[in-house]
UniProtKB/TrEMBL annotation, chains A, B:
<dbReference type="InterPro" id="IPR046335">
    <property type="entry name" value="LacI/GalR-like_sensor"/>
</dbReference>
<keyword id="KW-0804">Transcription</keyword>
<dbReference type="Pfam" id="PF00356">
    <property type="entry name" value="LacI"/>
</dbReference>
<dbReference type="InterPro" id="IPR000843">
    <property type="entry name" value="HTH_LacI"/>
</dbReference>
<protein>
    <submittedName>
        <fullName>LacI family DNA-binding transcriptional regulator</fullName>
    </submittedName>
</protein>
<dbReference type="GO" id="GO:0000976">
    <property type="term" value="F:transcription cis-regulatory region binding"/>
</dbReference>
<keyword id="KW-0805">Transcription regulation</keyword>
<dbReference type="Pfam" id="PF13377">
    <property type="entry name" value="Peripla_BP_3"/>
</dbReference>
<dbReference type="InterPro" id="IPR028082">
    <property type="entry name" value="Peripla_BP_I"/>
</dbReference>
<feature type="domain" description="HTH lacI-type">
    <location>
        <begin position="5"/>
        <end position="59"/>
    </location>
</feature>
<dbReference type="InterPro" id="IPR010982">
    <property type="entry name" value="Lambda_DNA-bd_dom_sf"/>
</dbReference>
<dbReference type="GO" id="GO:0003700">
    <property type="term" value="F:DNA-binding transcription factor activity"/>
</dbReference>
<keyword id="KW-0238">DNA-binding</keyword>
Length: 331, 331
DNA sequence: TTGTAGGCGTTATCAC
DNA sequence: GTGATAACGCCTACAA
């Protein structure tokens, strides 16, 4: 059976009151050195350490942050999670990773996060409509929320993301300079607004170059396989002469799947017959097997910002940072 | 300010005692239907839901499981995390993802997990020596621990993993049948026992085939880049005639990095000049760009087992499940 | 510097 | 079926 020593027990062993024990474990509390030593010694002997659960109940601070994730197929999530957990831990915050799926939806997760008194909720690459919240109002009951690596659909919920407008401008500028004139854009279908927003913006950039009409490819999910299927469907339907000459994909994992099909199944050369561009700059896209031209999100800045907002060192507001274009051989 | 309604407030609003409110939210409690309705109505109005923090303090059950991870470079971690969180959530358990690194080591994390009263700790792909525990004894104070996807170094801590003995036998059998005779094995250096154990077992299998001596390559970490460096170092030092003819890597990500170097920098054909085998069967290894022969861990069984042990539906004991060989073109 | 009351929001258990 | 008392282990405030 699990049985932890309590402050009371330590107090008895040390011959002081339990409040003195508490003080010994409270940085900056006024306590005599002699008492502190006695307490620490007794605590050591009893293997005592404060019960953070009880502390949280009393202080209303859990030092836990929920991170909602609904897409585990993009390898890019992993390094971001690594950095995020590290920074949060450096601030004394632990990360509760919550898998949003069919059986456990946003509302469910949010109610849970509320009941557990998490200090904050991060929507990492996921979002929901304002209506989803129903009657529950932000600011009362619900923990502060933030959207990471995506735009926010919910008024009052700040989004910390890469500046996609700047990114797409830079990408299109680059592609135009390279001489590409028949662009296509592949989205992962799942979400409406974000993906469609990006696609629309991509199209706008081309329009400013005098090029109207961006071919639209739609993958079923965000995975290499889905990217492959979408590329296959497109190439099967389009005769060689009428095809796009550059395909921008919403993220790298789609791009790699598409590239597989382009090269292996249709024998096309990348970038000569069809150029491919991704987004995220995942490690495997950078190797010689793909040499994928991509765009790197300013992950570090984004995480610094969101952690600062959670700790209160920084004002909570929507903000977008510029990333950097990664030029390789695929486009 | 966050302010949640309490059972007491609901009680006043509903004109009952707070214990009746609690009963209304306790499945299977004896309460009159009329009272329950009154309570639920009042709760609805006040937006009340039970405070799980207080409940945990009183019951000594947090419904939270800590998952320790110290390597975020292997993309294979992501789908496993997805399945693990989903299964845990299905059992009403949330996952606290803890990043073990220089600034936050196992001991630190374990003390924290203890203080927060987590129901269990999963060491996912990571482990430490028994000595690390110091004086703290298992079974008293510390939450129950499990090692996932790796062997356990700690007596009393069960490991749930893929049966590497069976796996390596099958792999070597396959390679031998294919005609390979000069094997090499690449480990990620970091950990001693597990990696070295695998390498030793790999060597044993070959010895049974009458082949002594397995070339040993050592990567600095588990990443494509580290795998590439290790392969580069080896190939640079070994003249063509004396080289191994098959390279088994401890995981896919090392294998992909190695394959990049083998093909692009040294112009060798895979598998003709040098065959490559990985472990984990990550999505990107399966595409035409690599066609990596690999070995798939029985993730689902492993997770079912560990979740069963945590919930107590299953006896806690070390167990290894056989996986399945994935034959592709790289070997 | 130290001790005391009272409270945080539940649950367990017993009396009515 | 319902109410009440005593925990759970800590923290904040105030008093000594």
């Amino acid at each position: 059976m699990r049985k932890r020593a309590t402050a009371k027990e330590v107090a008895e062993a040390a011959g002081v009151s339990k409040w003195t024990v508490i003080r010994a474990f409270t940085p900056g509390a006024s306590i005599a050195d002699a008492s502190r030593q006695k307490v620490l010694q007794a605590a050591e002997a009893l293997n005592y350490s404060p019960n953070l659960l009880a502390r949280s109940l009393a202080t209303n601070i859990t030092h836990q942050v929920a991170v909602f994730v609904d897409d585990f197929t993009n390898p890019h999530k992993l390094p971001v999670l690594e950095m995020l957990t590290e920074r949060l831990q450096a601030e004394g915050l632990l990360t509760v990773l919550i898998n949003i799926n069919r059986h456990f939806d946003h509302v469910h997760a949010l109610i849970n996060a509320d009941q557990r008194q998490f200090d904050a909720v991060i929507l990492f690459g996921t979002a929901f409509r304002e209506e989803t919240l129903g009657d529950r109002r932000l600011g009362r009951g619900l923990p502060p929320m933030f959207v990471l690596a995506r735009d926010s659909q919910i008024p009052g919920v700040p989004a910390i993301a890469c500046d996609t407008e700047v990114a797409l401008n830079e990408i299109v500028e680059y592609l135009f300079d390279k001489g590409y004139r028949r662009p296509g854009f592949m989205t992962g279908a799942r979400t409406l607004s974000t993906a469609l927003g990006r696609r629309r913006h991509f199209a706008n950039c081309w329009r400013q170059k005098g090029i109207d009409g961006v071919m639209e490819l739609t993958a079923e999910r965000y995975s290499a396989q889905a990217g492959a299927e979408a590329a296959r469907a497109y190439l099967s339907d389009s005769p060689p002469g009428s095809r796009i000459d550059v395909l921008m994909c919403e993220n790298d994992i789609l791009a790699l799947g598409a590239m597989d099909v382009v090269r292996s199944e249709f024998g096309l050369r990348v970038p000569h017959d069809l150029a491919v561009v991704g987004f995220d700059n995942i490690e495997l896209g950078g190797g010689p097997a793909y040499g994928l031209t991509s765009y790197e999100q300013p992950t570090e800045k984004m995480i610094d910002a969101i952690v600062g907002m959670i700790t209160g060192e920084r004002a909570s507001e929507t903000i977008a940072f510029p990333g950097s274009m990664i030029r390789r051989l695929s486009a």
